[in-house]
Amino acid sequence: MATTVLKSLNTALHEMMAEDERVLVMGEDILDPYGGAFKVTRGLSTEYPKRVWTTPISEAGFVGVASGMAMRGLRPVVEIMFGDFLLLAADQLVNHAAKFRWMYGDKVDVPLVVRAPMGGRRGYGPTHSQSLEKHFLGVPGLAVVAIHPLVDVGKLLRTAVLDDRRPLLFIENKKMYARSLRQPLNGRMGAMEVYSDGAVYPTATLAFGGLVGGDVTIVAYGGMVEVALEAAERLLIEDEIYAEVVAPTQLQPLQMGPITQSVERTGRLVVCEEASASAGFGAEICAALGESAFNALEAAPARVAAQPVPIANAPSLENQLLPDVDDIVEVARTRIGSIKGPRRTSFG
């Protein structure tokens, strides 16, 4: 039976609590039998009652407490019930946890992990369906990691909690919890070849038939990765367009290497995100690529993102506002329109 994202995260938390007494978990409504809004903490309070703390409704308060614990050598894991509430803790993260190492002359670390369920498509409405991680990108000293089913999400959580010295936002798309992990075997996933850059928080690049010069690069993270993969398959079947899909997990600091290398092969770029486009992840990638590899572009880069309005409650309206496979396919086709003959030369 395939392991789901939810199961992998829950198992990782149980293993860390068993192995390392420095690990503790806190958040709202995380005690059994409820086990958290999305059940990632299920079973923890039963087995480790002294190290699993349910908190008052005060994100600023308990993130601040966790920052102090981290500075004293503990490894706190904070669950934000909905990622939308992360802004209530923004001052503690941006003006405190991210800065303490510098303010105290590198004499302290803040190994704090804040888990945040983000994203829509579940009908939770405008204040419980957003993807707000873009507001934390670019904050010096604060790492942002967004998981997807192509990586061992439990292993990444262990790395963040036990090995990373930085305060870190761990972004979990809500629709992804029930998904099965799709970790590739022997470098393949279905018809696609999968390549990893080997980083601690890896970037996966997927392509049909190898990295030999496709037609367009599609960059996606988190919950948009599987959407991008479906779009790549449709582009191949319906249009004979070969797409490379680049799926980073570390969004801040952003590692541009795999993205730049892909665009140098394809000459085209489409960036996908579930958040709105303005001042977002896609904007940063387009700007960085313009600075480092402008001459590799054969067409203007494009962004596929949510509409710039609050997310609706009604599923029919929500689906219209959030980016989908059709949006990616349509935008990719526009970027391919000027290609004179295929770029791809072999299947090697």
Gap between N and C termini: 34 Å
Number of DSSP helices?
11
Q: Numbering strands along the chain, what is their spatial order in the largest sheet?
A: 2-1-3-4-6-5-12
Order of helices and strands: HEHEHEHHEEHEEEEEHEEHEHEHH
Give the C-level CATH assignment of the largest domain: Alpha Beta
Q: What structural class results from the helix and strand content?
A: alpha/beta
Describe the structure.
The protein has 348 residues and is of the alpha/beta class. The protein has two domains: 5-176, Thiamin diphosphate (ThDP)-binding fold, Pyr/PP domains (Rossmann fold); 188-336, Rossmann fold. It is built from eleven helices and 14 strands. The chain has helices at residues 5-19, 44-47, 59-71, 90-97, 100-103, 153-163, 224-239, 257-266, 281-292, 315-321, 325-336; strands at residues 23-27, 52-54, 75-79, 113-118, 143-146, 168-173, 188-189, 192-196, 203-208, 216-219, 243-248, 250-252, 269-276, 302-306. Strands 2-1-3-4-6-5-12 form a seven-stranded mixed sheet, sandwiched between helices. Helix 1 (5-19) runs parallel beside helix 6 (153-163), helix 3 packs parallel to helix 4 and helix 7 (224-239) crosses helix 11 (325-336). It is globular and about 60 Å long. The model is unreliable at 338-348 (pLDDT under 50).
